[in-house]
Every structure is written in C-alpha cells, then in structure tokens.
Amino acid sequence: MEKKEKKPKNLDFLMIGKTGNGKSALGNTILGRKAFKSKCSTSSVTKEIQYEVSEVDGRIIKIVDGPGVGDNRMDTENAIKLVMDQMTFAISAHPHGFHAFLLVVKFGGRFTEEDRETINFLKKIFGESFVKDYCILILTCGDNFQKESEDSGQTFEEWCDEQVGVFQELLQECGWRALLFDNMTRDEEIKKAQVKQLFKMVDRLTFHGHRYKDENFSKAHAARERLMVESKKQMIRDDTMIETSLIIQKLKKILDIDEPKESIEHLKDLMERTSLLYDNIKTQDNGTGALHDLVQTIESLKTTVQTEITIAQRIAIEKEKFSKEQKRTQREFDEERERWENEREEIKNQADYIERRYQEAKAKNDEGFFLKIASTVAWPFKALFGWN
C-alpha cells in the first residue's frame, strides 16, 4: 500500500497584485469571513501589510494582504521603496514562510506590457524563480466569465489554452496553475468549492513541504538593491550630466593657459573634483551595476583629465630644460664675447702703442728703429687674422 503524502496542516499565503483586482475580496472568500475591507476605488492603495487568520476545514489559514503593485504610482523611488519595505516586513514577520504567492488579476482585463513589467518588478523583489516555484494565478471577477461561458460553453481551462501574449507567458511560467474565483456569489457552496480547489493545488505545489522563506528572500537582495538604484537613476543621471558639463567647461578654460605649471595646479583641482563625482556615483550604484554607463562616462573623463596633467607636466619639464639650455648658451656666448672684447681691447692698445712709436720714429727719422718696433708688435695681428 502506497504511503499517502502528508498535507501541511497550516497554510500561509501572500496575496500580491494590482490595486483594485480584488485581493481583499479573495482573502475574505478563502477565510470564509469578512476579514479584509474591500475598496472599490482604484485610487486607493494598500498602505500597510495586513494579515488575517481563520480555521478552514480543520486547517489554520493565514493570509497576508501585500501592498498594491502595478499602479501608476509605483514608478517613483518613494513608491518602490514603500512596496519593498512592506514586502520585506511581510517576509521577516512570517519566519515560517509562505506556501504560495497568490498573484491576483482581474478576469476580462487586458494583460499588457505594463503587466509584464509588474511581474518583472516582483521578480526583482522575491527572486527570479518565485513565479515558477511558488505562484498561483488567481483570476477574480469569475461571475463575468460565467456570463460569457453560458453562451460559448467554454470551460475555464479551454479559455486559458486560447490565451496568447503576455498572459500566456505568465501561465506557462507558473506551470498553468490558474484558478477562477467568483467572490461576489452568494452561493456558499460555490465559494467553498473554489477554496477547496485552491487548497488542492497548494498541496500539490508543496509536495516536498518547502516554503518560500527568508533565505529565499535574502537571495534576491542584490536584485532589490538594483531596483532601488534604477528608481533613482534618472535623477542621478541628470545631476551627473550637469556636473560633467561644468567639469568639461572648466577643462577647456585650463587648456587655454600658456604657463604649464599654472595649468597643472588647476588640472589637479579638476581631477579631485572629477574623482569626487566618480566616488559618489560608485557609492550610489552600490555594486548593483545599474549606473554602469555613468560610471564609464566619468572614468573616461578622469582619464582625459589625467592625460592632460601628464601632457602639462611633460611640457613643463621640456620648458625647464630649454630654459636651462638657453641660460647655458647665453652664458657661453657672454663669456666668448667678453674674450673677444678683451682681445680686441688688447689689439687696440697695441695699435695705439705702434702709432705712438711710429710717430716718435718719424719724428726722429729713424727707419731702423721703426722696423724694430714693427716686428715686436706684429704678433697680435698674426694671432687675430691667423697669419703664419
């Protein structure tokens, strides 16, 4: 005789879905009492995590009504943080975990790309495989389906098989775990039958007795961090582009400075400013990679500034070398000129001496004496003109 699998005595559910899809009404149907307050207006959003408990068919059923997701207001940093904080609280406040996530959608509503983004949003919160492993798709407004099926004779399973696009992708991902709920019916037997069908599906889902627990939630931490950064990305991008533009403008002004030593000081200040911007972006990215493009942009800007510093330093070194060489050349020229002037002065003195002696000889009409003097003083002229 085969051993019968033991069903979990208690069942814990987390309801998630767009505001106005009937989560509260579904919770009341499952618990068999008006535990959650239904809100007809789609402008209202579940602000706090609520949970209720009832005993149903001898089993303790706990249902947590999560915040509404997929609303138009869920595209801002504060709204995303609110949902994430509340989902975090829902998981941490129920350490035993959940047997299933009840993903609540409204029958008759058109499933769009926005709904796909909502599912992706939930995956970033709970983990990439939470739909595949733990989700049951609940379609509310089952009374509308009953009206349509009276004419067509189509079953709910047949209707599911005909679906295409985003909704079909969701059905396939959750393993075709989909149930239709009519929460408006006054027929208690219909409600009980729906609930039993849900429990049966959950029992199959939890065949090995595993639940979605805090450790599952912890594994998705990196994705939630990235989600938060992405919610602020446009603001961070705008601030970064403004600062980047100002840095580039400053860089262009520095490049117009002729004195390299002066430009180096300004470039170092600019590098410090650029590095501060880079560190700020890295801090806000928090290792998620959501700001990778901005990080690369500022890395390139840092490289540009550093290159300009290197070029300015090389120019300063070469200019210093040229200045020293110029001073050395000038000194050598001055020394050579001084030597020439000294030699010329000596030659001039010798010429004056010859002139005086010549005049003296002429006066004495002593030709022999003149020739003697001429041979004595001729050597400076030979040295000057290279005569042999």
UniProtKB/TrEMBL annotation:
Q: Name one Pfam family in it.
A: AIG1
Q: Which PROSITE patterns match?
A: G_AIG1
Q: Name one GO molecular function term.
A: GTP binding
Ranges for the AIG1-type G domain? 8-221
**Key word Coiled coil present in the record?**
yes
Could you list the residue ranges forming a coiled coil in this record?
319-364
Q: Which family does it belong to?
A: Belongs to the TRAFAC class TrmE-Era-EngA-EngB-Septin-like GTPase superfamily. AIG1/Toc34/Toc159-like paraseptin GTPase family. IAN subfamily.
**Could you identify this protein by its name?**
AIG1-type G domain-containing protein
Q: Which organism is it from?
A: Biomphalaria glabrata
Name of the gene encoding the protein in the UniProt record? 106078302
